[in-house]
Design a protein that fits this description.
Helix content: 40-55%
Bound molecules: zinc ion
Radius of gyration: 20 Å
Strand order of the largest sheet: 2-1-5
Length: 158
């Protein structure tokens, strides 16, 4: 009985390790694909530790966000892809078409995945709209910044 329980514990541990490794593999595959495809990568500077106070943010940590960010950064450096962190304040609330802050607001708004802009009528998916705003902000920084190395502005934010 004791041996059986020990074997079970061992098996559970092995399964946990397997899940953890396959998630890490996925992050490696995705980050490699991104730096191979794009000349510039912009990422929101969201504060994960502040977000943990909000229940909605569990997925941010589950997804190994900081590990993914680290992978993107060092892989970008290796192949000379432009990598930059962008202030993503209001990126979910700002309409990526007309730039007005018409999106869902506050803690209640976090549950809203899709919304229509009251000003221009554009229909948005929350994450895609935020990514478009982050991408645009990154491109603006590239345009006014001091480019240390040449990088095309065809980019996607993740
Ligand atoms: Zn709009």
């Amino acid at each position: 009985m004791v041996a059986q329980r020990a074997r079970k514990t061992e098996r559970v541990r092995a399964l946990h390790a397997k899940v953890k490794n396959s998630r890490k593999d996925q992050l490696h595959n995705l980050s490699t694909a991104l730096v191979e495809e794009y000349g510039a990568i912009f990422i929101g500077n969201e504060n994960a530790s502040a977000l943990t106070r909000i229940r909605m943010a569990e997925s941010v940590l589950d997804a190994g966000w900081s590990l993914f960010r680290t992978m993107l950064q060092y892989k970008s450096d290796v192949v000379s892809v432009w990598f930059d962190e962008v202030d993503e304040a209001y990126s979910t609330r700002t309409c990526s078409r007309c730039n007005r802050r018409t999106g869902p607001n506050g803690l209640e708004g976090l549950g809203t995945r899709e919304w229509a802009c009251l000003e221009c009528g554009a229909y948005h998916h929350r994450d895609i709209n935020a990514a478009e705003n982050i991408c645009a902000a990154g491109c603006r920084r590239l345009a006014v910044g001091i480019p240390v190395r040449p990088a095309p502005c065809a980019a996607a934010a993740g």
